[in-house]
Amino acid sequence: MEHFPEPVVPGQDLDARARARLGARGSSESRRLAGLGIVAVALTWVDISGITRTKTVPVERLQDAAAWGVGMSPVFDAYLLDDTIVSGRHAGGPVGDLRLHPDLDRLVPLAALPGWAHAPAFRYAQDGTVHPLDTRAVLRRRTERLADDGWTVKAAFEIEWAVSRGGGEEFVPACRGPAYGMTRITELSGYLRHLLTALKETGVTVLQLHPEYAAGQFEVSVAAEDPLGAADTAVLVRETIRAVSMEHGLAATFSPKVEPDSVGNGAHVHLSLWRTGTEGPVNAMTGGDGPCGMSSAGEAFAAGILHRLPALLAVGAPTVASYLRLVPSHWAGAFACWGQENREAALRMIVGADGEQPTAANLEVKCLDAAANPYLVLAALIAAGHEGLGAGRKLPDPVGVDPATLPQAERDLRGIGRLPASLAESVAAFEADEVLRDALGEAVADTVVTVRRGEIDLLDGATPEEITAVTRWRH
């Protein structure tokens, strides 16, 4: 194995020495991949609309791409979900260039796409400085800020998707079995077997897979990892699902609303806060004397997220269609509250089975969906939790029922507010939240608002059926 001294830290500015080291490693990786039959590498990024976009290079060009990047217009961050372009202060228009550099630490062959490899990209300006709209770099910065105070986060996304047999724009469920039924596994056993095999061969650790509630809907859960790795894995899992589906003559949709009269696809995020103790890493979400056994730090981190949920939705529920999904009594987490194992609360505290709490205890954020950029979602969640830590925030009393069943007067008394019911409401909350805007940076925050307002205008006056149809196959 070749040794490369002074490794380059991805997401930090590049100088001549860093470019030389990246090029040397890119050359080595190029030879390795070519020996595996890889002919091309897809460099991906996720735009502000939550769509994974790419530029690819032949494997023999990986050395050059690693050192000098691949040219790309900054305009892509101003794309709406239908590929129309809006203009903000930091994105939009034909002028400018940035460079995509593959993150070689996350470079993997794609088992579902033989001959192809995947590398998420960091984005740089031509002078080697980190581009202000690079959401992977934003997430890395938020993780480093948290680490400066001695904390780390483990995270994972649950991925929900629905499978269609239709060849056109309509959704035709690929299986007819009941919700959560073994019948669906039997109907699509070959497809699901292929999917699990492809994920394993790509290096993804799958914890479980099961049929979900909606027609043709499934969910896969993966192992928790560092935040940047968790976001990269979320992209990798979705693209693997998409590729395997197409090979079986099916179409996969991750849209927050596939059919207007059915539940939608979520992308719940699991988070746990950790600190290194005298005997190794310690999970702050358990082992304390706070609510559900949380430590004071774990409670403060969770309370910080709960406090900022309305603004967080502009990042984590980023489409007009998201608010067709985010309705009460649909297990979507439509109320700003928390509860132990309460699947109607926006924050579900999971304590784990007796004996596994030190590793299993975590917080599930349920009000998010797969139209979101996973890097921005985790960056915003970490920023909110970090602020909660600094402020020593406390959680309100937990909610042990479906909040929608409580009288309005009781909800008011207990401070259980309805989360925004529209994208416009969440954007307004985001604009008023200085903590989140500062955490993401001016360029990202301004572009988030610009793109969200663009989608609001695009779908102004549309019916739920029209909104669903426009959104169904975009994510």
From TrEMBL:
Coiled coil: none annotated. SMART domains: Gln-synt_C. Residues 36-128 form the GS beta-grasp domain. GO terms for biological process: glutamine biosynthetic process. SUPFAM superfamilies: Glutamine synthetase/guanido kinase. InterPro entries: Gln_synt_N, Gln_synt_N_sf, Gln_synth/guanido_kin_cat_dom, Gln_synth_cat_dom. Residues 135-475 form the GS catalytic domain. Keywords: ATP-binding, Ligase, Nucleotide-binding. One of its GO terms (molecular function) is glutamine synthetase activity. Belongs to the glutamine synthetase family. This is Glutamine synthetase. It comes from Actinomadura hallensis. The lineage of its organism: Bacteria, Bacillati, Actinomycetota, Actinomycetes, Streptosporangiales.
